[in-house]
Amino acid sequence: MTVVIQITDTISIDDSELVESFVRSSGPGGQNVNKVSSAVQLRFDARHSPSLPNDVAVRLMKIAGSRLTKDGVIVIIAQQHRSQDRNRAEARERLFEMIRQAAVRPQVRRATRVPKAEKKRRLEGKKRRGEIKKFRSGRAGYD
Protein backbone atom coordinates (compact mmCIF):
# COMPACT_ATOMS: atom_id res chain seq x y z
CA MET A 1 0.00 0.00 0.00
CA THR A 2 1.46 3.35 -1.02
CA VAL A 3 1.08 6.35 1.23
CA VAL A 4 0.80 9.78 -0.37
CA ILE A 5 2.17 12.71 1.63
CA GLN A 6 0.49 16.07 0.97
CA ILE A 7 3.07 18.89 1.07
CA THR A 8 1.23 21.82 -0.51
CA ASP A 9 -2.18 22.18 -2.15
CA THR A 10 -0.73 21.14 -5.51
CA ILE A 11 2.25 18.96 -4.54
CA SER A 12 2.05 15.53 -2.96
CA ILE A 13 4.82 12.93 -2.80
CA ASP A 14 4.54 9.17 -2.75
CA ASP A 15 6.16 7.69 0.37
CA SER A 16 8.06 5.21 -1.83
CA GLU A 17 10.12 8.14 -3.23
CA LEU A 18 11.74 8.67 0.18
CA VAL A 19 14.61 6.32 1.04
CA GLU A 20 15.58 6.20 4.70
CA SER A 21 18.61 4.51 6.20
CA PHE A 22 19.50 4.44 9.88
CA VAL A 23 23.05 4.86 11.13
CA ARG A 24 24.69 5.33 14.51
CA SER A 25 24.57 8.87 15.73
CA SER A 26 27.61 10.83 16.88
CA GLY A 27 27.76 13.06 19.94
CA PRO A 28 26.48 12.64 23.49
CA GLY A 29 24.03 9.96 24.55
CA GLY A 30 25.99 7.54 26.72
CA GLN A 31 25.77 3.84 25.93
CA ASN A 32 22.75 4.53 23.74
CA VAL A 33 25.03 6.01 21.05
CA ASN A 34 27.06 2.81 20.77
CA LYS A 35 24.08 0.46 20.64
CA VAL A 36 21.24 2.14 18.76
CA SER A 37 21.17 3.37 15.16
CA SER A 38 19.13 6.49 15.86
CA ALA A 39 20.46 8.88 13.20
CA VAL A 40 18.41 9.05 10.00
CA GLN A 41 19.75 9.58 6.49
CA LEU A 42 16.86 10.59 4.22
CA ARG A 43 17.35 10.52 0.45
CA PHE A 44 15.02 12.07 -2.12
CA ASP A 45 15.68 12.01 -5.87
CA ALA A 46 14.62 15.53 -6.80
CA ARG A 47 15.79 15.32 -10.41
CA HIS A 48 13.75 12.22 -11.32
CA SER A 49 10.74 12.70 -9.04
CA PRO A 50 7.46 12.37 -10.95
CA SER A 51 5.64 14.25 -8.17
CA LEU A 52 7.44 17.56 -8.62
CA PRO A 53 6.84 19.99 -11.49
CA ASN A 54 10.07 20.74 -13.37
CA ASP A 55 10.40 24.37 -12.20
CA VAL A 56 9.88 23.34 -8.55
CA ALA A 57 12.51 20.57 -8.90
CA VAL A 58 15.04 23.05 -10.31
CA ARG A 59 14.43 25.53 -7.46
CA LEU A 60 14.56 22.69 -4.91
CA MET A 61 17.96 21.55 -6.18
CA LYS A 62 19.21 25.13 -5.92
CA ILE A 63 17.91 25.45 -2.34
CA ALA A 64 19.45 22.08 -1.35
CA GLY A 65 22.97 23.40 -1.99
CA SER A 66 25.60 21.11 -0.45
CA ARG A 67 22.98 18.48 0.45
CA LEU A 68 22.56 17.70 -3.26
CA THR A 69 24.61 14.92 -4.88
CA LYS A 70 25.79 14.98 -8.49
CA ASP A 71 22.93 12.63 -9.40
CA GLY A 72 20.29 15.11 -8.18
CA VAL A 73 19.56 13.25 -4.92
CA ILE A 74 18.99 15.34 -1.79
CA VAL A 75 20.50 13.80 1.37
CA ILE A 76 19.29 15.02 4.75
CA ILE A 77 20.87 13.72 7.94
CA ALA A 78 19.03 14.11 11.26
CA GLN A 79 20.74 13.03 14.47
CA GLN A 80 19.79 15.68 17.00
CA HIS A 81 17.34 13.55 18.99
CA ARG A 82 17.98 10.33 20.88
CA SER A 83 15.02 8.50 19.39
CA GLN A 84 14.93 7.24 15.83
CA ASP A 85 11.30 8.28 15.38
CA ARG A 86 11.96 11.91 16.28
CA ASN A 87 15.01 12.07 13.99
CA ARG A 88 12.95 10.52 11.20
CA ALA A 89 10.16 13.07 11.65
CA GLU A 90 12.67 15.94 11.73
CA ALA A 91 14.41 14.80 8.53
CA ARG A 92 11.09 14.51 6.71
CA GLU A 93 9.90 17.91 7.95
CA ARG A 94 13.15 19.56 6.81
CA LEU A 95 12.71 18.06 3.33
CA PHE A 96 9.05 19.09 3.16
CA GLU A 97 9.94 22.64 4.24
CA MET A 98 12.54 22.84 1.45
CA ILE A 99 9.91 21.67 -1.06
CA ARG A 100 7.44 24.29 0.25
CA GLN A 101 10.08 26.99 -0.24
CA ALA A 102 10.79 25.75 -3.78
CA ALA A 103 7.07 25.73 -4.60
CA VAL A 104 6.87 29.51 -4.16
CA ARG A 105 7.44 31.10 -7.57
CA PRO A 106 9.82 34.10 -7.24
CA GLN A 107 8.47 37.49 -8.25
CA VAL A 108 9.88 38.76 -11.54
CA ARG A 109 11.54 42.14 -11.13
CA ARG A 110 10.45 44.70 -13.68
CA ALA A 111 13.07 47.31 -14.53
CA THR A 112 11.91 50.87 -13.87
CA ARG A 113 13.33 54.23 -14.94
CA VAL A 114 14.30 56.96 -12.50
CA PRO A 115 12.20 60.06 -13.30
CA LYS A 116 14.04 63.11 -14.70
CA ALA A 117 12.83 65.31 -11.84
CA GLU A 118 14.32 62.85 -9.33
CA LYS A 119 17.69 62.85 -11.13
CA LYS A 120 17.67 66.65 -11.21
CA ARG A 121 16.83 66.86 -7.48
CA ARG A 122 19.65 64.44 -6.65
CA LEU A 123 22.24 66.36 -8.69
CA GLU A 124 21.17 69.69 -7.18
CA GLY A 125 21.55 68.18 -3.70
CA LYS A 126 25.04 66.97 -4.55
CA LYS A 127 25.97 70.37 -5.93
CA ARG A 128 24.67 72.11 -2.78
CA ARG A 129 26.62 69.72 -0.56
CA GLY A 130 29.78 70.36 -2.62
CA GLU A 131 29.35 74.13 -2.17
CA ILE A 132 29.02 73.72 1.60
CA LYS A 133 32.21 71.66 1.74
CA LYS A 134 34.03 74.11 -0.52
CA PHE A 135 33.25 77.01 1.84
CA ARG A 136 34.38 75.01 4.89
CA SER A 137 38.03 75.25 3.89
CA GLY A 138 39.36 78.74 4.36
CA ARG A 139 40.03 79.11 0.65
CA ALA A 140 36.50 79.70 -0.64
CA GLY A 141 36.67 79.97 -4.40
CA TYR A 142 40.49 80.27 -4.72
CA ASP A 143 41.00 77.05 -6.66
Features:
about 140 residues; alpha+beta; elongated
Describe this structure in words.
By secondary structure, this protein is α+β, with helices and mostly antiparallel strands. The chain has a domain at 4-103: Double Stranded RNA Binding Domain (2-Layer Sandwich), CATH 3.30.160.20. Helices cover 40% and strands 17% of the residues. It contains four helices and five strands, in the order E-E-E-H-E-H-E-H-H. The strands form two sheets. It has a three-stranded antiparallel beta sheet with strand order 3-4-5, with helices on one face. Strand 1 and strand 2 form a beta hairpin. Helix 2 packs across helix 3 (84-103). It is elongated, with a radius of gyration of 28 Å.
Brief description of this entry?
This protein is an alpha+beta fold and 143 residues long.
Strand content: 15-25%
Q: Strand tally, please? A: 5
The CATH class label of the domain at 4-103 is: Alpha Beta
**CATH architecture title of the domain at 4-103:** 2-Layer Sandwich
* Shape type: elongated
- Total of helices: 4
The CATH topology of the domain at 4-103 is what?
Double Stranded RNA Binding Domain
The strand order across the widest sheet is: 3-4-5
Strand-pairing-aware structural class: alpha+beta
**Oligomerization state of this entry?**
single chain
The helix content is 25-40%
Overall mean pLDDT score? 84
The arrangement of helices and strands along the chain is EEEHEHEHH
Largest sheet: 3 strands, antiparallel
Low-confidence stretches: none
Q: Determine the N-to-C terminus distance.
A: 88 Å
The rounded Rg comes to 28 Å
